[in-house]
């Protein structure tokens, strides 16, 4: 997950030796590892309800030698937003992603890059947040995007009334963050059931919330109180459009925001080699299929898809 395992390097070595492998091929891997290239490859789908987030790409060295106040003004003016999301341009993992609310936050982030910090401690920025793991070595190219506001979906474990709705969601913003697995052959990818992640703290999901057992809560499928079946079906159709446009095959995971009213999808990133821990959300999603696809069937299918391509 990430690095040479996800950017086409290992895939090309395996192909050269005639060794079958799971997941997308060399070109799709290269494209999806680069968030800017991913956006460009999907631009033509805007009329079909697949949207991309405006981006501004900056080199680390330029950030270090330009006055931060000037950079902040340029970015917020160009992207027409008040708060920014910063992330490494070429990393399939969730490291280095942070919300920046002011020029001082950008100063802290750039200093972390300069000092090659492995993590930014909790609450280093103006807005409360958890630990932010940083890429090692620091990324040479960074992407700045408008920060997409979503209302947190909170789960109350304190409720004493068993019949009470334990989910709390304001719904002022009609966008929620989803993650969804896709599986199949190139050109005919199938979308599994999307999951919404219940955030436990801060705006950016921590690595623990994404990957480690027992700390993140994923709801599969999204509750009907949040998203209608009709919007969910449209969302899945658009996820399949994305997967086929990017020439994904085998299996991958797509992170996006979805509009709960019309199923429009705003793409965040595509993981061509998803992190596969025992708590991976793809297992829950496969079990939500009709009929359910049990873990051994899911992995057998992935292996079969991988070997069939190289026959």
From TrEMBL:
One of its GO terms (biological process) is cell wall organization. PROSITE patterns: ATP_GRASP (PS50975), DALA_DALA_LIGASE_1 (PS00843), DALA_DALA_LIGASE_2 (PS00844). The keyword Nucleotide-binding applies. It comes from the Eukaryota. GO terms for molecular function: ATP binding; D-alanine-D-alanine ligase activity; metal ion binding. Residues 242-304 form the ATP-grasp domain. Keywords: ATP-binding, Cell shape, Cell wall biogenesis/degradation, Ligase, Nucleotide-binding, Peptidoglycan synthesis. Belongs to the D-alanine--D-alanine ligase family. PANTHER family: D-ALANINE--D-ALANINE LIGASE (PTHR23132), D-ALANINE-D-ALANINE LIGASE FAMILY (PTHR23132:SF0). This is ATP-grasp domain-containing protein. It comes from Citrus sinensis.
């Amino acid at each position: 997950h990430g690095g040479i395992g996800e950017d086409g390097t290992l895939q090309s070595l395996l192909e050269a030796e005639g060794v079958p492998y799971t997941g997308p091929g060399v070109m799709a891997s290269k494209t999806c590892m680069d968030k800017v290239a991913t956006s460009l490859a999907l631009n033509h789908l805007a009329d079909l309800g697949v949207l991309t987030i405006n981006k501004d790409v900056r080199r680390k060295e330029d950030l270090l030698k330009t006055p931060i106040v000037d950079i902040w003004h340029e970015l917020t003016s160009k992207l027409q937003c008040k708060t920014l999301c910063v992330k490494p341009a070429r990393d399939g993992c969730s490291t280095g992603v942070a919300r920046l609310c002011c020029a001082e936050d950008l100063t802290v982030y750039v200093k972390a890059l300069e000092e090659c910090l492995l993590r930014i401690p909790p609450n280093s920025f103006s807005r409360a947040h958890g630990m932010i793991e940083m890429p090692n070595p620091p990324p040479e190219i960074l992407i700045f995007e408008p920060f997409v506001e979503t209302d947190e979906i909170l789960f109350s474990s304190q409720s004493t009334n068993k019949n009470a709705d334990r989910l709390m969601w304001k719904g002022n913003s009609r966008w929620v963050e989803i993650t969804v697995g896709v599986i199949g052959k190139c050109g005919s990818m199938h979308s599994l059931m999307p999951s919404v992640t219940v955030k436990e703290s801060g705006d950016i999901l921590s690595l623990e919330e994404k990957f480690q057992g027992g700390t993140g809560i994923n709801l599969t499928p999204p509750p009907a109180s949040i998203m209608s079946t009709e919007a969910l079906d449209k969302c899945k159709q658009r996820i399949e459009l994305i997967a086929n446009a990017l020439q994904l095959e085998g299996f991958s995971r797509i992170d996006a925001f979805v509009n709960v009213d019309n199923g429009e999808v705003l793409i965040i990133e595509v993981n061509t080699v998803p992190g596969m821990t025992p708590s991976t959300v793809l297992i829950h999603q496969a079990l939500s299929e009709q009929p359910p696809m049990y873990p051994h069937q899911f992995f057998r299918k992935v292996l079969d898809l991988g070997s069939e391509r190289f026959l």
